[in-house]
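Retro notes (design track)

What went well: tokenization of the new backbones is finally stable.
What didn't: we kept losing track of which sequence belonged to which structure.
Fix going forward: every design gets posted as structure first, then sequence, in one message. First example under the new rule, 316 residues:
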């Protein structure tokens, strides 16, 4: 029987659902290193969450397909996967709802300056002069109009916001006033009151958001970082915040994680920092299982098309 190795803690009811639907597969849950490397030599399928090293690939000579349940795949040895002709699919879309809610909360909190009022609360300070704004009528620029960006755009449009954004294909999208190609990313920074970064980490996007883009932003504009920390030049970001070239930051991702205690980001009054939690949700595994189930059905039957296939040349 075809062996599928599952290298994360999928809840028992969801694992049992997969086993019942695909009796032609042997599905082994291997959350620890010993059981993983015991089964990898016979594995044809690897299902993983944020873990797949070169050593794991070397131990799996029969591997034909990797199903990552994370949206990003920058943690994988993509060159080796491509060289070996291994099919790669990901969990794109599993985080769209919770990340859109995070982005919405970030914009509203920034508009009402909740971060300033929270600091006043800690000091028992009554201050009614903290500026209060609206998101209604503001422009949000989204860097990366994939599944998550599209969900944010729909919600922002419903709140009366104007949406502009960047994607590889500049085809029109629901709720987006202007879809621009990557070569026009500067226009998003110039126009936006809130810039939301959802860019994937690839060689082409490493530290792409830097000083030249922050200098294009309005001094009243805010930057919300939710994609991959490697896409932002953190030194340039800190400089822009310190010099008040931009108003404020909400960041959930960083160049180094956990964020080091000596990072200057911790000490900026105009920064709100969260510990890479914007994709967390009690519904995550259920949504990931729906992708796995579909793709296993295609793989075992040879009919249909797998969803969330990764372009190994592009890196996402």
């Amino acid at each position: 029987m075809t062996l599928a190795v599952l290298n994360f803690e999928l809840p028992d009811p969801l694992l049992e659902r997969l086993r019942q639907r695909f009796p032609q597969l042997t599905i082994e849950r291997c959350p620890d290193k010993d059981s993983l490397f015991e089964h990898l030599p016979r594995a044809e399928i690897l299902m993983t969450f944020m873990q797949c090293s070169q050593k794991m690939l070397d131990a799996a000579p029969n591997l034909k397909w990797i199903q990552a349940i994370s949206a990003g795949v920058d943690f994988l040895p993509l060159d080796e996967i491509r060289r070996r002709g291994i099919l790669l699919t990901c969990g794109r879309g599993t985080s769209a709802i919770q990340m859109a809610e995070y982005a919405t909360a970030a914009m509203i909190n920034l508009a009402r300056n909740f971060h300033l009022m929270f600091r006043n609360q800690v000091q028992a300070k009554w201050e009614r002069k903290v500026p209060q704004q609206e998101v209604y009528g503001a422009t949000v620029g989204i860097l990366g109009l994939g599944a998550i960006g599209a969900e944010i755009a729909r919600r922002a449009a419903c709140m009366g916001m104007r949406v502009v954004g960047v994607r590889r294909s500049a085809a029109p999208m629901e709720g987006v006033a202007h879809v621009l190609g990557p070569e026009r990313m500067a226009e998003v920074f110039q126009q936006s009151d809130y810039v939301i970064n959802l860019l994937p980490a690839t060689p082409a996007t490493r530290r792409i958001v830097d000083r030249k883009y922050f200098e294009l932003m309005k001094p009243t504009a805010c930057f919300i970082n939710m994609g991959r920390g490697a896409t932002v030049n953190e030194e340039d970001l800190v400089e822009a915040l310190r010099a008040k070239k931009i108003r404020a930051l909400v960041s959930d991702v960083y160049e180094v994680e956990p964020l080091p205690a000596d990072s200057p980001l911790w000490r900026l009054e105009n920064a709100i920092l969260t510990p890479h939690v914007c994709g967390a949700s009690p519904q995550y595994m259920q949504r990931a299982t729906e992708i796995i189930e579909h793709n296993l059905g295609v793989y075992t039957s040879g009919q249909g098309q797998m969803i969330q296939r990764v372009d190994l040349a592009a890196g996402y």
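Added context from the reviewer: Residues 193 and 221 are 4 Å apart (CA to CA).
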